[in-house]
Amino acid sequence: MLIQSVKMALKSILSNKMRSFLTMLGVIIGVFSLVVLVSLVSGASGSITDTISELGTDQVDVYVDGVRGLPISLNELQTDIAGLESVALAAPYTYSPATVTTANESTRSIIEGTTPELAEIQGIKLEHGRFFMNPDVENNTNVVVISHEMAVDIVGRSDCVGEKIKINGRSFTIVGVIEKQSNQMMLLMMGSPYICYVPYTTLVRLMPGMSMSVTGFSLSAQSSLDDVEKEITEYLAKRFPGEEDNYEIYNESEISDQMGKVTGILSILLGGIAGISLLVGGIGIMNIMLVSVTERTREIGIRKAIGARPSVIMLQFLIEAIVLSLMGCLVGIGLSWFAMQVINVIGNVSFGLSLTVVAVAVFFSMAVGIIFGLYPAKKASSMKPIDALRFS
Questions:
Q1: 109-123, 208-222, 268-282 — which is least confidently predicted?
Q2: 216: in domain
Q3: Pair (166, 17) in one structural domain
Q4: Distances (CA, A) of 162 to 149, 200, 251, 274
Q5: Cα–Cα distance between 193 and 109 in angstroms, integer?
Q6: Residues 178 and 302 in one domain
Q7: Is the pTM of this model over 0.85?
Q8: Are residues 97 and 232 located together in one domain of the fold?
Q9: Is residue 229 in some structural domain?
């Protein structure tokens, strides 16, 4: 009986294709909006999370630029601050844009000056070679670790350890190549798709006007980042009394958590907005099902006269409403997939449909079909055979 009801529902829907399509349009738009918007938020959230993870979520970042007291020296960072009880590792960093040239190519890149500890703090993984070492920092050695993207685009191949490049006209030896990264958006915001790491002391001497004083550094924890944050706050309060507004401390794990909450709320908000379209689509289904009941009143009367139970009549119209809603859902999912492919090509991204959102869309479409098809189905099943047969 169920299969027969589905067949009858499909026959009824296909007998008036344009009307059925217009009825499904609300559901199609609702599902399309829900799946695309939430999938985009989910994809963007994943990209941001990956970027934050690559930058390091198990660390505390400190900026002390602008303090009026005696600035922090590299030696102070490596002895006093790194020697704090809760701190496992400490690494300075400073950035500067520079021109990187090879025999055939020239480009702008972000140059980060730091020490070997940063690789461990941020979990930097190397595809080839090694990160620079403490002797390189102590001797201001002209060595550089470059990104995979720079190795491929500028040098010509990823395995380019030992090759020479020039940074602002000075020759550097490539000692390592970092694995391919996903934080290109962050780098582009800084002004270049490429990044190079050089010893802190080397960058200071390379860039005119750059001071050896440490204005930014990263810390990893012995056990808890909260302990690091608390201890470095106390240290800086003593080191720079009354200048709390001139330095900033960021617990990266908290930033990651907050980002997750923001994107989660955004997904719910956009999903709710798209859900309104589904409700509008449901009203359209109820409207057309009431019209269908009116058009088929004599058919209902004949079926009841020959013994059809009210439950059978009700099931037939309810299934028709559900099938109508699910067909709209499938079309909406198909259009969503196509839209995501277009977005991926145009935006050079790799977002995909969220299977969870697709499942939610199917569930809500079925719910819409049941809720908004229940009243017309109930109305059809409660008709008296004699009144239905007299209808003209």
A1: 268-282
A2: yes
A3: no
A4: 17, 20, 37, 55
A5: 7
A6: no
A7: no
A8: yes
A9: yes
**In this structure, is residue 253 part of a structural domain?**
no
Higher-pLDDT residue of 69, 224: 224
- Average pLDDT over the chain reads 83
Burial label for 157, CB within 10 Å (0-12, 13-18, 19+), is exposed
31 and 102 share one domain: no
Q: What is the pLDDT of residues 14-57, one digit of tens each?
A: 877 888 888 888 888 888 888 888 787 777 666 666 655 555 55
SS (H, E, C) the chain: CHHHHHHHHHHHHHHCHHHHHHHHHHHHHHHHHHHHHHHHHHHHHHHHHHHHHHHCCCCEEEECCCCCCCCECHHHHHHHHCCCCCEEEEEEEEEEEEEEECCCCEEEEEEEEECCHHHHHCCCCEEEECCCCHHHHHCCCCEEEECHHHHHHHHCCCCCCCCEEEECCEEEEEEEEECCCCCHHHHHHHCCCCEEEEEHHHHHHHCCCCCCCECEEEEEECCCHHHHHHHHHHHHHHHCCCCHHHCEEEEHHHHHHHHHHHHHHHHHHHHHHHHHHHHHHHHHHHHHHHHHHHHCHHHHHHHHHCCCCHHHHHHHHHHHHHHHHHHHHHHHHHHHHHHHHHHHHHHCCCCCCCHHHHHHHHHHHHHHHHHHHHHHHHHHHCCCHHHHHHCC
How do residues 50-98 score in pLDDT, each as one tens digit?
A: 655 555 557 889 988 777 778 899 999 999 999 999 999 999 999 888 9
Total domains present in the chain: 2
User: Containing domain of residue 273, as a range?
Assistant: 2-52+258-390
pLDDT band at 186 (very low <50, low <70, confident <90, very high): low
Beta bridge partners of 63: 216, 248
Residue 60 located in a structural domain? no
Q: Are residues 33 and 161 in the same domain?
A: no
- Looking at the fold, whether 215 and 135 belong to one and the same domain comes out as yes
Return the bridge partners of 94, or none.
113
Q: Are residues 211 and 304 in the same domain?
A: no
